[in-house]
């Protein structure tokens, strides 16, 4: 079935345990999300996790509508169980339904258009305020087959970057640095991702302006210009996506949202930037740290979390720590749970 890809990959189980529990303990019957049957009570929404999360969130809403239409049950409501990036999709759908509120550059009000189709939302290890693990992956790649050149092309990863753009970089002494993670010029200056000479694409295919006068180079002939343009567009869209999720309705979420995660594993929260004669050295771990300094550096870089998502990000706590007006932890209103409702079906979303 379509969800089998989430059971295991290369012998490693990812969502197999969760699906087994829902099926064997919860008694849910998994159906084909594209061809649901009357006895099906659970579905897996699968999507291309490399692409924009707005696209995937809208796709989630359309999948729900498709199930309702095929089962002739327009009032059918769903529980959503979402892990990691899937939780951002769930929050987007809850707040905006199938409307694209990012592409036109305007600020749209939160309508909770997805709420009438939902019973409750369960978030598992969701980076509601982003994760520095995404920045590390974009900068250094992931495994031998996922190089920085490959990760650079994935819009969804930029939408996982920390929202607090100036709160996640420090110098070797732990002093905060003013670094805007959503400015392409900063990436180029610091040699991050494909702009690192060690990873740079040596002979990229170029696009030429056939209408340019003879002997005049088009700006597209410069691979740095092309890559910088792509990067800034991806960062701008990520910033708009973050802003959309940050907005709230006047009375909070009309359906319950439950959060589960961890705060017992040291999790990357700060990268250390060290200026050298050769350029900027960006540190994500203590591998090159003298033994006597390891504990000090770990304290600077790490925060409680699950190894990928910090507890503050899980709970949508702002970097400032408190709401200046109320003096209370500043958290996303999506977590307001004013009422309970009885769901009829359960959907599962993975990364």
Describe how the helices and strands are arranged.
Elements: E1 8-9, E2 12-13, H1 16-25, E3 42-45, H2 53-70, E4 78-83, H3 86-96, E5 118-124, H4 132-140, H5 148-151, H6 155-158, E6 169-170, H7 184-190, H8 223-246, E7 257-260, E8 265-268, E9 271-276, E10 279-283, H9 294-301, E11 302-305, H10 311-314, E12 345-349
Parallel strand pairs: 3-12, 4-5, 4-12, 5-7, 6-9
Antiparallel strand pairs: 1-2, 8-11, 9-10
Helix pairs in contact: 2-3
Kindly describe this structure:
This protein starts with 7 loop residues before the first strand and ends with a strand. It has helices at 16-25, 53-70, 86-96, 132-140, 148-151, 155-158, 184-190, 223-246, 294-301, 311-314, and strands at residues 8-9, 12-13, 42-45, 78-83, 118-124, 169-170, 257-260, 265-268, 271-276, 279-283, 302-305, 345-349. Mean pLDDT is 82; it is low at 1-12, 201-221 and 320-344. It has a domain at 2-129 and 250-259 and 335-349. The strands form 4 sheets. A 5-stranded parallel sheet has the order 3-12-4-5-7, covered by helices on one side. Strands 6-9-10 form a 3-stranded mixed sheet, with no helix packed on it. A two-stranded antiparallel sheet has the order 1-2. Helix 2 (53-70) packs across helix 3. The protein has 10 helices and 12 strands. A hairpin with a 2-residue loop joins strand 9 and strand 10 (279-283). It has 351 residues and is an alpha/beta fold.
